[in-house]
Amino acid sequence: MKDVFARLASDFLSAIVFLAIYLITDNVVLATSVAVAGAIAQVIYARIKGRQLNYMTYASLALVVVLGTITLLTNDPRFMLAKPSIAHFAIGAIMLKRGWMLRYMPPIVVETVPEYVTAAGYAWAALMFVIGVGMIAVASTGDLKLWAFYLTVVAGGAKILAFAVQYVVLRLIVTSRRRAAARA
Prior knowledge:
Elements: H1 2-11, H2 13-25, H3 28-48, H4 55-74, H5 78-94, H6 107-112, H7 114-141, H8 144-183
InterPro entries: YciB
Organism: Bradyrhizobium nanningense
Protein name: Intracellular septation protein
Protein backbone atom coordinates (compact mmCIF):
# COMPACT_ATOMS: atom_id res chain seq x y z
CA MET A 1 0.00 0.00 0.00
CA LYS A 2 2.86 2.34 0.83
CA ASP A 3 4.28 1.65 -2.63
CA VAL A 4 1.01 2.70 -4.27
CA PHE A 5 1.01 6.06 -2.48
CA ALA A 6 4.68 6.59 -3.33
CA ARG A 7 3.90 6.01 -7.02
CA LEU A 8 0.94 8.39 -6.91
CA ALA A 9 3.07 11.08 -5.27
CA SER A 10 5.75 10.52 -7.88
CA ASP A 11 3.23 10.70 -10.74
CA PHE A 12 1.77 13.97 -9.51
CA LEU A 13 5.00 15.53 -8.23
CA SER A 14 5.27 18.03 -11.09
CA ALA A 15 1.67 19.16 -10.55
CA ILE A 16 2.26 19.51 -6.81
CA VAL A 17 5.51 21.45 -7.33
CA PHE A 18 3.82 23.69 -9.89
CA LEU A 19 0.93 24.43 -7.56
CA ALA A 20 3.11 25.09 -4.51
CA ILE A 21 5.46 27.45 -6.31
CA TYR A 22 2.64 29.23 -8.11
CA LEU A 23 0.69 29.77 -4.90
CA ILE A 24 3.79 31.05 -3.09
CA THR A 25 5.15 33.30 -5.85
CA ASP A 26 2.14 33.96 -8.13
CA ASN A 27 4.64 33.52 -10.97
CA VAL A 28 3.45 31.17 -13.75
CA VAL A 29 6.79 31.17 -15.56
CA LEU A 30 8.79 30.24 -12.47
CA ALA A 31 6.31 27.58 -11.34
CA THR A 32 6.12 26.00 -14.78
CA SER A 33 9.88 26.07 -15.30
CA VAL A 34 10.56 24.40 -11.97
CA ALA A 35 7.83 21.79 -12.59
CA VAL A 36 9.24 20.91 -16.02
CA ALA A 37 12.81 20.80 -14.71
CA GLY A 38 11.66 18.66 -11.78
CA ALA A 39 9.90 16.18 -14.07
CA ILE A 40 13.01 15.86 -16.23
CA ALA A 41 15.20 15.48 -13.13
CA GLN A 42 12.87 12.78 -11.79
CA VAL A 43 13.32 10.67 -14.94
CA ILE A 44 17.08 11.23 -15.02
CA TYR A 45 17.37 10.25 -11.34
CA ALA A 46 15.34 7.07 -11.93
CA ARG A 47 17.52 6.14 -14.92
CA ILE A 48 20.71 6.73 -12.92
CA LYS A 49 19.35 4.52 -10.14
CA GLY A 50 18.68 1.83 -12.76
CA ARG A 51 14.94 1.79 -12.27
CA GLN A 52 12.81 0.39 -15.07
CA LEU A 53 10.63 3.18 -16.44
CA ASN A 54 7.35 2.34 -18.11
CA TYR A 55 5.37 3.96 -20.89
CA MET A 56 3.31 6.03 -18.44
CA THR A 57 6.43 7.63 -16.97
CA TYR A 58 7.58 8.80 -20.38
CA ALA A 59 4.05 9.86 -21.36
CA SER A 60 3.81 11.89 -18.15
CA LEU A 61 7.16 13.55 -18.86
CA ALA A 62 6.06 14.40 -22.40
CA LEU A 63 2.82 15.90 -21.08
CA VAL A 64 4.67 18.05 -18.57
CA VAL A 65 7.09 19.30 -21.21
CA VAL A 66 4.40 19.97 -23.86
CA LEU A 67 1.85 21.51 -21.49
CA GLY A 68 4.60 23.38 -19.66
CA THR A 69 5.81 24.86 -22.95
CA ILE A 70 2.25 25.90 -23.87
CA THR A 71 1.84 27.41 -20.39
CA LEU A 72 5.08 29.37 -20.81
CA LEU A 73 4.08 30.60 -24.28
CA THR A 74 0.59 31.68 -23.21
CA ASN A 75 1.36 32.60 -19.59
CA ASP A 76 -1.82 30.66 -18.69
CA PRO A 77 -1.60 28.11 -15.85
CA ARG A 78 -4.70 26.20 -16.99
CA PHE A 79 -2.61 24.09 -19.37
CA MET A 80 -0.46 22.78 -16.53
CA LEU A 81 -3.59 22.25 -14.45
CA ALA A 82 -5.04 20.05 -17.21
CA LYS A 83 -2.10 17.62 -17.12
CA PRO A 84 -3.53 15.33 -14.41
CA SER A 85 -6.78 14.97 -16.36
CA ILE A 86 -4.91 13.73 -19.42
CA ALA A 87 -3.08 11.25 -17.20
CA HIS A 88 -6.43 10.06 -15.80
CA PHE A 89 -7.78 9.56 -19.33
CA ALA A 90 -4.70 7.56 -20.33
CA ILE A 91 -4.90 5.40 -17.21
CA GLY A 92 -8.65 4.92 -17.75
CA ALA A 93 -8.01 3.78 -21.32
CA ILE A 94 -5.42 1.26 -20.12
CA MET A 95 -7.88 0.03 -17.49
CA LEU A 96 -10.38 -0.83 -20.22
CA LYS A 97 -8.29 -3.92 -20.99
CA ARG A 98 -10.26 -6.94 -19.82
CA GLY A 99 -8.78 -8.53 -16.71
CA TRP A 100 -6.03 -5.97 -16.13
CA MET A 101 -6.69 -6.01 -12.41
CA LEU A 102 -6.31 -9.78 -11.98
CA ARG A 103 -2.53 -9.59 -11.70
CA TYR A 104 -2.82 -7.26 -8.69
CA MET A 105 -5.15 -9.52 -6.72
CA PRO A 106 -4.25 -12.24 -4.25
CA PRO A 107 -4.56 -15.78 -5.68
CA ILE A 108 -7.61 -16.57 -3.52
CA VAL A 109 -9.53 -13.69 -5.10
CA VAL A 110 -8.44 -14.58 -8.65
CA GLU A 111 -9.43 -18.22 -8.14
CA THR A 112 -12.75 -17.48 -6.45
CA VAL A 113 -14.24 -14.38 -8.14
CA PRO A 114 -12.36 -13.46 -11.33
CA GLU A 115 -15.55 -12.09 -12.93
CA TYR A 116 -15.97 -9.56 -10.10
CA VAL A 117 -12.35 -8.48 -10.39
CA THR A 118 -12.89 -7.87 -14.11
CA ALA A 119 -16.00 -5.81 -13.36
CA ALA A 120 -14.06 -3.85 -10.73
CA GLY A 121 -11.42 -3.11 -13.36
CA TYR A 122 -14.06 -1.54 -15.62
CA ALA A 123 -15.43 0.42 -12.66
CA TRP A 124 -11.94 1.81 -12.02
CA ALA A 125 -11.66 2.83 -15.69
CA ALA A 126 -14.98 4.68 -15.42
CA LEU A 127 -13.80 6.40 -12.23
CA MET A 128 -10.62 7.60 -13.98
CA PHE A 129 -12.66 9.07 -16.85
CA VAL A 130 -15.07 10.83 -14.47
CA ILE A 131 -12.19 12.28 -12.43
CA GLY A 132 -10.48 13.42 -15.65
CA VAL A 133 -13.60 15.23 -16.88
CA GLY A 134 -14.04 16.86 -13.49
CA MET A 135 -10.42 17.96 -13.45
CA ILE A 136 -10.74 19.61 -16.86
CA ALA A 137 -13.86 21.44 -15.68
CA VAL A 138 -12.08 22.64 -12.56
CA ALA A 139 -8.86 23.53 -14.43
CA SER A 140 -10.81 25.60 -16.95
CA THR A 141 -11.93 27.91 -14.14
CA GLY A 142 -8.32 28.83 -13.44
CA ASP A 143 -9.04 28.76 -9.69
CA LEU A 144 -5.94 27.16 -8.21
CA LYS A 145 -7.41 26.64 -4.77
CA LEU A 146 -10.43 24.85 -6.21
CA TRP A 147 -8.13 22.78 -8.45
CA ALA A 148 -5.90 21.83 -5.51
CA PHE A 149 -8.97 20.83 -3.50
CA TYR A 150 -10.31 18.75 -6.38
CA LEU A 151 -6.96 17.06 -7.03
CA THR A 152 -6.29 16.17 -3.41
CA VAL A 153 -9.63 15.81 -1.67
CA VAL A 154 -12.10 14.91 -4.41
CA ALA A 155 -9.91 12.84 -6.77
CA GLY A 156 -7.76 11.37 -4.01
CA GLY A 157 -10.73 10.73 -1.77
CA ALA A 158 -12.69 9.07 -4.58
CA LYS A 159 -9.82 6.66 -5.22
CA ILE A 160 -9.41 5.82 -1.54
CA LEU A 161 -13.15 5.30 -1.17
CA ALA A 162 -13.28 3.13 -4.32
CA PHE A 163 -10.38 1.03 -3.03
CA ALA A 164 -12.07 0.56 0.35
CA VAL A 165 -15.42 -0.38 -1.21
CA GLN A 166 -13.72 -2.79 -3.60
CA TYR A 167 -11.79 -4.41 -0.76
CA VAL A 168 -14.88 -4.90 1.40
CA VAL A 169 -17.09 -6.14 -1.45
CA LEU A 170 -14.52 -8.61 -2.77
CA ARG A 171 -13.76 -9.85 0.71
CA LEU A 172 -17.47 -10.44 1.44
CA ILE A 173 -18.04 -12.22 -1.87
CA VAL A 174 -14.95 -14.43 -1.54
CA THR A 175 -15.87 -15.35 2.04
CA SER A 176 -19.45 -16.13 1.01
CA ARG A 177 -18.37 -18.31 -1.91
CA ARG A 178 -15.79 -20.18 0.15
CA ARG A 179 -18.35 -20.90 2.85
CA ALA A 180 -20.84 -22.13 0.26
CA ALA A 181 -18.18 -24.36 -1.32
CA ALA A 182 -17.26 -25.79 2.12
CA ARG A 183 -20.91 -26.66 2.81
CA ALA A 184 -21.32 -28.38 -0.57
